[in-house]
Amino acid sequence: MPEILKLEKYSLGVGDRFARQASAQLGACIAAANQGVEVIPVWNKSNREHLIIGSEPASTRAAADAAVKALGWKLPYHVDADHIGLRTVDRFVPHADFYTIDVADWIGKPAEGGAIEGLARRHSELVGRIAVAGIEAPFEITVPEFQRIAAKYLLAVQEAGKVYRHVAGLKGEGRFITEVSLDETDTPQAPPEMLVILAALADEGIPLQTIAPKFTGRFNKGVDYVGDVGQFEREFNEDLAVVAFAVKRYGLPATLKLSVHSGSDKFSLYGPIRRALKRHNAGVHLKTAGTTWLEELIGLAEAGGNGLALAKEVYAGALQHVEELCAPYATVIDIDRRKLPAASLVQGWSAGQFVSALRHEPANPAFNPHLRQLLHVGYKIAAQMGERYLQALGECEASVSRNVTGNLYERHLKPLFLNAD
After folding, report:
1. Nearest-CA neighbor of 372 among 389, 360, 361?
2. How far is CA 85 from CA 47, 202, 382, in A?
């Protein structure tokens, strides 16, 4: 493996739809650092989000650089070309030093002739009983099972290799951080599958530093985990063990760690993740997706006046265009439309009522996860407002930034990295 730009042990993917909250987001990392825990911010924005907003990757880099300079942040930070492929990556290359290679579209498609047989010849050790430190019982991969795993994932791995080499040819070997995203597929990757995938990624020569598997359960946008928390904890521990095994066995970077996508607001998982990281002395990359955009709306509503009126207008627009907004996110939202309040009802809400419905406080009886998920995917409505929305953010800056920083620090960083068991 080439000498590479290294990703630090703990990192936080901070999405920022409108590139206005970088300082507020960095404030949460500064608060954690002041408590003795270094969590490195990685500003991420996908090609899809840029297209919807009408922005360019340069804006993400500019916002991150400006925040770091303004707040005097001395630790590393990164800018992520999020969920890219060969068709979309080039516009990010001058601005990003972190690349999330999304291979979901290639999972389940057959690899080129002879590829599976070649993988089997190179990795005969992956057939039979395999003992992995940290996993109680050895697991066994039969020949048919190996072939099934390879048939499902090998082409996706090969595509990741193509994208990595393309970026390396433009930026230079070792000058960026590579993540591979496998989470947007139909079924979770079990530990034996993860091991085969990691061996194949090593064969591609990818200096992989984070991998985003699909975990058991539902990781819906902006709301808590839906599933068996105990099963997730066992699975997460086993995945950490497999990653450590693959690092030693296949020469992958020692910095390789798990990435949790749609990780924002998975409050019930933060305790299990924290315990697992401590047990394995492992790092993690947590992507907080669009939670900052929702905190912008909360900040606007909380400010009252024009801010509250605009937040209500965004909801009304999202409700009117619910089909269009939800379609691209169908696999990561669960919205019962019967539980979405009418726009006319919301129009009469006070600031407190709007905030209570939207802010992710599950114990609050007024909290409405269906409204929250709709607004999570409804940022296109705000984008269509153009300068009017951005001006409102400026007018309500104190309220917005307070909510952005407080949400990331109190609800994410503290329970994941600072709280004691």
Report:
1. 360
2. 10, 19, 27
Structure tokens at 222: 């902006």
Vertex 112 angle, CA 111 and 113, to 5°: 120
The string of DSSP letters for 65-125 reads HHHHHHHT--S--EEEEEEE-TTTSGGGTTT-SEEEEE-GGGTTSPPPTTHHHHHHHHTGG
Q: CA 254, 257, 49, 41: dihedral to nearest 10 degrees?
A: -80
pLDDT at 318: 98
Where is average pLDDT lowest: 203-212, 217-226, 412-421? Answer: 412-421
CA separation (Å) from 343 to 59, 261, 314, 382? Answer: 33, 31, 10, 16
Nearest to 8, CA basis, from 209, 153, 150, 252: 209
**Beta-ladder partners of 14:** 43
Type and span of the H or E element at 399 = helix 397-406
59-62: which pairs have CB atoms within 8 A and are 24 or more residues apart?
A: 59/19, 60/16, 60/19, 60/95, 60/96, 61/95, 61/96, 62/19
Q: How far apart are CA 410 and CA 405, in angstroms?
A: 8
Report the residue count for the chain: 421
Domains of the chain: 10-289 (3.20.20.120), 292-408 (no CATH)
Helix segments in 251-396, DSSP class H: 267-280, 291-303, 305-320, 322-326, 343-347, 351-358, 369-376, 379-385, 387-395
299 pLDDT higher than 70: yes
Q: Which residue has the higher pLDDT, 3 or 54?
A: 54
